[in-house]
Amino acid sequence: MPSPSRFPPPRTLYGRDAEQDALLRLLDAARGGSGGSVILRGARGTGKSALLDIAAEHAKGRPGGTGAGGANGRGHANRGVHRDGDVRGDGREDGNGRGDGFVVLRVRGTEAESRLPYAGLHGLLRPITGRLPELPAPQAAALEGALELGVAGDGLVLPAAVLNLLTAVGGPVLACVDDVHHLDAPSREALFFAARRLEGEPVVLLFGVDAAAGKTGIGGGGGADGRADGIALPGDLPVFELGALDPGAARRLVGDLVPGLPDDVRASLLEVARGNPLALGELARSLTPDQVSGVAAPPETLPRNGGLWRAYADRLARLPAGTADMLLLLAADPDLETATLAAATEPECALSALEPAERAGVIVRVAAPGGDRYDFREPAMREVVYGDASLARRRAAHRLLAGVLGQDHQRLRRAWHRASALDGPAGPLADELAAAASAAGSQGGSATASRTGHPAPFLAFERAAELTAHGDLKAARLAAAAHRAWHAGLPRRARSLLSRLNSLTVSEEVRGQAELIRGSLELRSGKTGNAGDDLMAAAESLAGRDREQAVRVLIRAGEASYLAGDNLRYLDIARRAEALRRPDDPAAVQLMFEYLAGTAATFDGRHRQAAGPLRRVLELAPLARTPSVLIWAGVAGMLLGDDVQAVRLCNRAVETARARGAVSTVPQVLEFLVQAEIWTGRYASITANAVEGLRLAQECGRLNSAGQHLGWLALTAAVEGDEETCAIRAAGAIELAGAHGLGVAGALGNWALAHADLAAGRHADAAKRLRATTARGDGAGGHLVVQVLSTPHFVEAAVRTGDREEARQALRVLDRWVGSTRSPDRRAVAIRCHALLAAPEDAEERYLAALEQHRQGISEFETARTQLLFGSVLRRNRRPGAAREHLHSALETFERFGARRWAEQARAELRGAGESVGTRRPGGAERLTAQQYQIARIVADGATNREVAALLYLSPRTVEHHLRNIFARLDIRSRVELVRLMS
Known about the structure:
This protein is mainly alpha-helical. It contains 47 helices and ten strands. The strands form three sheets. It has a six-stranded mixed sheet, sandwiched between helices. Strands 6-7 form a two-stranded parallel sheet. The protein has a two-stranded antiparallel sheet with strand order 9-10.
């Protein structure tokens, strides 16, 4: 695998579309004779220089070339702006910086020249000093004296000369001033003077300034050490604040920097970088081949040899020693309250020692539930403070903090600091830390919220293991660390911790715990076959010690079989669980046994026997307090056909998981919520939930969950008639299915493709795809549940291709299930299938019966599908008036759902019934696919390509591709024309 450093830099500046558009509008205004100015303010690496580069490239007539700007905040258009900070003018295109009518001037402030008066003006204006004779003599003399001798008189003469020289060029001018906080003060003030007076002039002045150095509208003054890094910015100039990238933009940037990076590795980089594009670029370039492939753990801090680390270290080195000591306390405990910090030393001393860091913009004071505290303005600086401190200083800081954290809720933090300071014998410290981590996990799920609390419980157990000498106890603590890392959404960290058990002698109990964790890891992100084996072994180990936990593990093993589509193994697991059952089991344990019994009977086709246990699960559901039990109850509701109850229970599971901070559990429970919503036909909600589930699954490394969500998203794309997106998402689901043994994901992908075929009238293709859902064990198509869900589509496709007997056989399976449920929507769909197979004289009666059931249900989309088929039959039976009534209703529903292909079928049937039917889309937009129409509407509302991509979970390049096709189909050339047409 190639080294990350060999990957080409990204060609797009991510997450800055609004700023780019504003700068380009400003350039357009300058071309028209009236420019202006903007200050770009942000932390180092947030893209200030890259935006200046983009503006310069567009001014020179070379739009879009940003080079590595997306990665490190700088584009490739660096001509004349040197890494060593020298102040230079921009290179010239035709001898005076002109390109496409613009003269482009560039300068970057540098500390080395910050005390040289007019050094900044010298670097910026030197390319156009040939225009000096065109100025009034006093102004020309003042400016020439400033540039050549570094002296000038007071008053307006010099600033006026700067403004007049910029306007004397004879055409539009772009002047870019980067790192303005390092520019000498006289140059800075002269340029701010000019910036206020550009209305009606063909000049654009752009400034880049560090967020910590530039303060708007306040008095000047130096930085904490007297250097010129704290300046006053004009309060009357527009300021663009460049904050952290939004999560979607950051993910796309990493994907561009390192294509194919495992999702959980990418999530780790995103957590370290915290939205800073320069940090993401440096982290990506620091990855080793093993880290890229996911074999080795990803970096947990910024690269120590990177530019961002060095820049932070340089800033910190200027602060007084007492301030550095206080910052180390903040770095050692991110949750440190101001009151606790004050208690660690003399209160006045602590706060006064922090003042230089606050003035320098290193820290800010923030409100927090437990009392206000200080936080680092740029989160990555915390790692630099701690990483650059000596071991002795770190231990002293931890020892001091341990002495002041005495309250009960601070128990884990106190134990962590004592262990980090080695404040006593290793054994007792390890015991104290492990006990505190266990208590924290039992008091509200902090193990699953580890990314927001300090310390993370998995880190506490890992540190406790490091301090433990006894082999079995050490192994138990490593297993506990792995368990909590897994629940924190860090599967590779969990696997790494488990691998350390291989060198230890462990007891049977610890081995069982390790097998359970390995099985859970495989269940969510590995191969389902391996997961089933590991979980069965863990259940066998637990059966003699913890029967209730053993049953829970058997349910997980059953889930592995469900995901794989292995129903025989599921039935075997249910039989093993039944052997553990006792008459006096408490209600919570009874629910688990009833769940396994009911689902096993369903998968075995014994639907009437399944009804009793499943109803008992619903009766016991009010006792449920955990996401997993709520999901079991939701599944029972689905199998009984109680769709409203199933959706309600699954929604409760999602809410419970979020309330507990169990972020890594949310994608799993969303899988079941989406499945429950399928029968209700709420496709907008399905898409939103599946998009969120896919994002969280990727971030938490739960690839098997990602496969299912891709399958559901492929299905929603098929409903909308967007075959291109459906094919992409289905291919992703099928690929994951093949790699991980996910029969359900593969079956969903095939179902989605078949739905698209059916909607487009390719009935033979649809029937061929849906036959694959009857396969077993190949991980690419076979799954009983999806087979039943897709049966209505298969029956329709098979009838259209003449395979009526095959359709009847498939319908028998659906009938047995539907007959045991109370769902009018499912009964309606089954009756519709019988209508398709009925003789012409009987079909109408059956369709009417199906519509009567639909009226009692809630699925508008399936009602419309029945109306479309019924209308077609009525038209062929020479009853066009009755046909039009049903077809109109179907068309209205399909258009509301954005189901383009189904709407086309309804229009075709209406035309066959003698009615001329147009489109409700404006401006000829009927020529667009559903996806293109959706993108066109969003773009017409003012969204950028990046915003569209984030909203629809597409790549920006895919959106750009769609937009080109939209323009071609509509015969337009600009967004302005699109807005006009769509309105």
